[in-house]
Amino acid sequence: MNKSELVEALADAKSLTYKKAEEIVNLIFDSMAQTLVEGGRIEIRGFGSFVVKDYKAYMGRNPKTGEIIQVKPKKLPFFKVGKELRERVNKDR
Predict the structure, then answer these.
(1) How many CB atoms lie within 10 A of CB 7?
(2) Rounded CA separation 47/1 (Å)
(3) Across the beta sheet with 42-44, what order do the strands follow?
(4) What is the helix (H) or strand (E) element at residue 52, kind and residue range?
(5) Does the keyword Glycoprotein apply (predicted)?
(6) How confident is the model at residue 93 (pLDDT cuts 50, 70, 90)?
(7) Is the dihedral of CA 66, 67, 70, 76 positive or negative?
(8) 60 CB contacts (<8 Å, ≥6 apart)?
(9) What H or E segment, with its residue span, contains residue 5?
(10) Which helix (H) or strand (E) holds 88?
(11) In terms of pTM, does the model score above 0.85?
């Protein structure tokens, strides 16, 4: 499912216009992104949680040239699946 499919599903389920459903989805995603930018944590019970992990600088290698390069420190969002979602996905196994 992509973003436009999510908007369509919301519009159909709640009898909203596509434009209104799109505004709602954008508001949710923008709020989540802003929380992560500010260093916050997002937890959706039964689904999972989002956090930002810090990665230190390290010496890496350019795979094309083999040259050793300095990789700068960075922050990346990380998703940890919740127990309920994991169980639903693995229900038939």
Answers:
(1) 20
(2) 16
(3) 42-44, 48-55, 74-81
(4) strand 48-55
(5) no
(6) confident
(7) negative
(8) 68, 69, 70, 71
(9) helix 3-13
(10) helix 83-89
(11) no
pLDDT in tens, 27-60: 999 999 999 999 999 999 999 999 999 999 999 9
- SS3 label, residue 56: coil
The ranges assigned to domains in the chain are 1-38, 41-93
The radius of gyration computed from the CA coordinates of the chain, to the nearest angstrom, equals 19
The answer to whether domain 41-93 has CATH 2.30.42.10 is no
**Tokens found for residue 13:** 């389920």
Task: Give the pLDDT confidence score for residue 51 in this predicted structure.
Answer: 96
Q: Which long-range contacts (CB under 8 A, 24 or more apart) does 50-54 make?
A: 50/77, 50/78, 50/79, 50/80, 51/77, 51/78, 51/80, 52/76, 52/77, 52/78, 53/77, 53/78
How many residues make up the chain in this entry? 93
Contact 66, 47 (CB under 8 A): no
